[in-house]
């Protein structure tokens, strides 16, 4: 894996939707392939995925605080 990604755009802005499986197939495939090649985006993916898991532990009242 590398941070060199050629002409591919970084995918950080799509990671939230990707983690939630909310991207259309036409976008999720390219994101998955990019994450295999780009260390920076892969690290950001891990952070987003961890945050989503932590949010699932909160109840509605805690989220509103």
What do you see in this structure?
It is a single chain. About 60% of the residues lie in helices and about 0% in strands. The chain has about 60 residues and is an all-alpha fold. The chain has a single domain, classed as Arc Repressor Mutant, subunit A, CATH 1.10.10. The protein is built from four helices and no strands. The longest helix is centred in the C-terminal third of the chain and has 17 residues. Helix 2 crosses helix 3. The N terminus is likely disordered. This is Zf-HC2 domain-containing protein.
Q: Major sheet, described briefly?
A: none
Helix count equals 4
> Based on CA inertia axes, which overall geometry fits?
elongated
How do the helices and strands follow one another from N- to C-terminus? Answer: HHHH
Structural class, by secondary structure, is: mainly alpha
Strand content: under 5%
User: What is the CATH top level name?
Assistant: Mainly Alpha
Approximately how much helix is present in the residues?
55-70%
Q: What descriptive keywords fit this protein?
A:
Arc Repressor Mutant, subunit A, single chain, 4 helices, mainly alpha, disordered N terminus, 65 residues
Short description:
62% of the residues lie in helices and 0% in strands. It has helices at 15-19, 25-37, 39-55, 60-64.
Topology, element by element:
Layout: H1 15-19, H2 25-37, H3 39-55, H4 60-64
Helix pairs in contact: 2-3
Keywords: Transcription, Transcription regulation
Organism: Streptomyces nitrosporeus
InterPro entries: Anti_sigma_zinc_sf, Znf_put
């Amino acid at each position: 894996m590398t941070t060199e990604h050629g002409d591919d755009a970084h995918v950080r802005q799509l990671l939230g939707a990707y983690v939630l499986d909310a991207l259309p197939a036409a976008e999720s495939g390219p994101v998955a392939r990019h994450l295999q090649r780009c260390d920076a985006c892969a690290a950001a993916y891990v952070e987003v995925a961890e945050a989503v898991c932590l949010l699932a532990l909160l109840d509605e009242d805690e989220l509103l605080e």
